[in-house]
């Protein structure tokens, strides 16, 4: 029997690694909690409570980055929000960096949503570590949108690029993850900002789900629009557009055009990573 026959599946190894790290963080939390009980003085207790809060944040981040099981669709916006909140607690709040979200509901297959989360986590962490905000209040913005059958995720910060190190290994890893989604990553930069754009297409299953959601939203908004039209001053019937009174959702193009160029209206230079 060959050695290959004894190899464990990749998913099993990842789960085992996750459990070991989680157990280590839990043990550290237990030690800090015990130290808080024994500590004398408000200052010592406050410092230990801060340590416990940081450990809780790291535990939440680690939980969000665990590889999912099952085939269910996951709302990518909710996943990114939860991940960002955990990163605030574990890192960004202590660095006085504000994290801002502008997202819309985009159901993705759990494995693909997990890969998106890995990329977003790395982009936020890299911005927090390498950006130089000078006298500006640090801000990192995450925008997640869907245009037809194309998903775009933008991570933008207001830090200076000139002092950033060349994290070649991380760039290659993020690019590999983007390619596994069928997409790509591009970077735009200026004197006081850096933006990274991840763009990838929906799968057929994801397209059907997102199309169904868009159709339901249009149906729900029709009565409201019709009621508003009744109370407003209307032009003569001949001038009224039938299409305006009955909006129709546009079904995503199975082969959408690249929307990266539409995300930034300014002439900032875009550099492929």
TrEMBL record:
GO terms for molecular function: ATP binding; protein histidine kinase activity. Residues 227-266 are annotated as: Disordered. It is an enzyme of class 2 (transferase). It catalyses: ATP + protein L-histidine = ADP + protein N-phospho-L-histidine. It comes from the Bacteria. Its EC number is 2.7.13.3. Keywords: ATP-binding, Kinase, Nucleotide-binding, Phosphoprotein, Transferase. PANTHER family: ETHYLENE RESPONSE SENSOR PROTEIN, TWO-COMPONENT SYSTEM SENSOR PROTEIN. This is histidine kinase. It comes from Bradyrhizobium cytisi. The lineage of its organism: Bacteria, Pseudomonadati, Pseudomonadota, Alphaproteobacteria, Hyphomicrobiales.
């Amino acid at each position: 029997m060959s050695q290959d026959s004894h190899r464990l599946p990749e998913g099993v190894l990842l789960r085992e690694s996750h459990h070991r790290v989680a157990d280590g963080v839990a043990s550290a939390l237990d030690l800090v909690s015990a130290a808080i009980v024994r500590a004398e003085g408000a200052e010592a207790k406050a410092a230990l409570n801060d340590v416990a809060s940081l450990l809780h944040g790291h535990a939440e981040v680690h939980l969000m980055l665990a590889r999912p099981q099952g085939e269910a669709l996951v709302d990518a916006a909710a996943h990114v929000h939860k991940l960002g909140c955990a990163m605030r607690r574990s890192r960004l709040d202590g660095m006085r960096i504000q994290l801002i979200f502008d997202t819309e509901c985009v159901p993705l297959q759990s494995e693909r949503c997990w890969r998106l989360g890995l990329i977003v986590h790395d982009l936020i962490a890299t911005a927090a570590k390498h950006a130089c905000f000078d006298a500006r209040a640090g801000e990192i913005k995450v925008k997640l949108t869907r245009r037809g059958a194309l998903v775009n995720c933008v991570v933008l910060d207001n830090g200076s690029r000139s002092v950033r190190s060349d994290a070649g290994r991380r760039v290659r890893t993020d690019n590999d993850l983007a390619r596994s989604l069928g997409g790509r990553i591009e970077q735009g930069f200026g004197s006081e900002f850096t933006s990274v754009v991840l763009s990838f297409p929906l799968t057929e299953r994801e397209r059907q789900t997102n199309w169904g959601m868009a159709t339901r939203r249009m149906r729900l908004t029709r009565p409201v629009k019709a009621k508003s039209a009744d109370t407003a001053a209307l032009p003569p019937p001949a001038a009224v557009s039938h299409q305006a009174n009955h909006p129709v959702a546009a079904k995503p193009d199975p082969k959408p055009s690249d929307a990266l160029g539409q995300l930034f209206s300014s002439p900032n230079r875009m550099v492929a990573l």
